[in-house]
Specification:
About 45% of the residues lie in helices and about 20% in strands. With about 270 residues, it is α+β, with helices and mostly antiparallel strands.
Length: about 270
Amino acid sequence: MAAQPVIETEDTAWYTSTPMRSRPADGGLRSVTTALDVLECFAVDGDLGVSDIARRLGIAKSTAHRVLTTLAGRGFIEQDPDSGLYRLGLHLYELGQLTISRNPLRHAALPTLRQIASQTSLTANLAIADGPDVVFLERVELGAGERILGHAGRRFPAHVTSSGKAMAAFSLTLDRARREAGFPPRVRATVRTEQDWAGELARVRAKGYALASDESFDGVTTIAVPVLRGEHAIAAISVFGPHESVTPRVDRIVPLLVAAARRISLNAPH
């Protein structure tokens, strides 16, 4: 039997499995929609030129140039003076930081995340669902987490993470979105079929936690539990580290995560 393909674990790999967000049914304001389409091109590549943007979006080079110039003037992107290529600008970083800092769920969870990281000496994460993906709102990095993650982004397809499995088991919306988006492989043990996905979610419901080994990064194991409101997952809390640091301690880590998820649920705003 042929070996399953393994995709590259580049910093941008997870973005390539998530399509550009759909446009509003009424088309929206065309100039704004085009500007947002241009910004989303940079989710996949760090540096792009006018021709790259025009080709990807199927627009005239003159239109791409006008949009890029406007966005650069507002600090949303910036141009390299040597290469002439464009990249995301600092103003987007500022706005993103404001989004995170003002998120009430993050505020409710942060003390608990720090406690979990201290108790386990592992990187602790808080994740929420967004379409077919998970977005890590907060990450307290300890142990080998910083070395492994490097400059990794905070969005991953739900099927490659324990957090995604933990939430999808108690969120029909996330489960359905991931099935519709499919299961592109990331590394060697990534879930690849709808049948395997269904089996993973059934195990989460039976055990109360999710496990992912060699699914987001080779050599890494993560454990996650859902943060529930009633029977619905509003988030997930997880720990992350090399196999040897996580796998032998699953039975000790899971109760800590379960208790932490309950505290976050109680403290989270309704």
